[in-house]
Amino acid sequence: MTDTYYLISDLHIGGDEQLEQVDFLDELLAFLRELEESDEDAELIINGDAFGLWEFTQVEGPAKLDALLDRYPELFAQLQATGREIPITLIPGNHDYELAAYPEYVDRLAEYNVTLEQEVSIERSVGEHVVHVEHGMQEDPSNRIPDFGNPYANPPGYFVNRQITSRAGRLSDRGKYNWLKDIQAVTPMTQIPDWMISNYFYREMSAWLRYAVVPFLLLFNVGVLYVAIFALDWFGLWSAPLTAVLEFLELFGPAGELVRLVLVGNLVLILLLLAIAIPLSVFVRDARKTLRRFGFVRSRGDADPVEKYIDRARAVFASNPRAAVYVYGHTHRPSSTEVDDRLVINTGTWLKRLRRIDPVIGVVPPVFYSSYRLNYFRLSPADDGGVLVEYEVIEKPDPDDETLLQRLLTRSPKQQTPVPARTVVDPAGEFDRQLEETDATTGDDEIPRQPSDS
Questions:
Q1: Terminal-to-terminal C-alpha distance of the chain
Q2: What is the pLDDT of residues 223-256, one digit of tens each?
Q3: Facing residues of 327 across strands?
Q4: pTM summary value
């Protein structure tokens, strides 16, 4: 009887035009070949969002599988080969929710030795314990399927992806850099405006304009101080600071004069901003209220999104005393978290990861550093009767596609919280966790530190 399981999720394969590109296809094929050649009595579970069906807008329904077969014949051939040796089970996520809505998908995928279970969740036994697996979209208000199995029961996220993500795939190659297709990697979605501003500034803006405004933006914070000094002199309260600044700049000749002109320019800009600040703040506040109402912006009082999955895990554990591990994906943040002597794991994503880093000075846009974390979890019986949870990362070099200006304006990303390479879960015993220096990292500050929250 199978009691060893490999878990991956959020591959997001397929979509319009540039979304067809799969940066990790070679690594995925190699992973599937390793499973094919292994002697384990194991099962591969793909925990939702294997495909980007929402991002296809030129075909509808089961015809989307034909588009996938045409585009990735080697992938389906390898799935077929691997599936002859070990079971492969797929459950729907939100981006491939249509898998749950059309019975035809079950038979078509079975031809490639992939078992599609049209369910929100599945369970597997590991020794005496149970592993509960679900994608996680039902805990996300923007992507919760209101009537699971109904092809027309689409959540707000469906329309966002149809109108924004798929269009990004069609337009991406029109840019100076082919970056717009990476919109799927931006999480949470509220980061998309900042990400687009960042890419416009560092990649699409005319070079002469960018380097003309950089001095003003870098000296903006200094400019705010200059405004205060200027105001003291203007109102006759204290002239010494302004005099000292001007005398100091005169020591540097033409360079000092250039800095003075930049400060004057910033002074004018800040005064203009102050003039429109009040009506602009009213507009921004009203716009945020509208976005919050639609669920695209969180208020400060909202619970941490990860807490929803912890609460869901606790409900699963309470309903089934044998459940030792709760598995979800969806958020693209790999993690391993202890909850009441049990374990909650997030299977992450194989998409490019984007991590926001704010500049060290000035008001220039943030930089989104890209990386890969091609990870999987392996669950098997532990020697002492518990569940052994192993975390592995398939090595893939980071894209390293940040520009020189982006690197100059930001610090390199810091090392992040590691996911344990080995955890033994035994609700009747003690937790055993091991960290290794080679572990991959969660990459997100949202994931709490162990123990007990995710």
A1: 32
A2: 777 778 888 888 888 888 888 888 888 888 888 8
A3: 133, 345
A4: 0.82
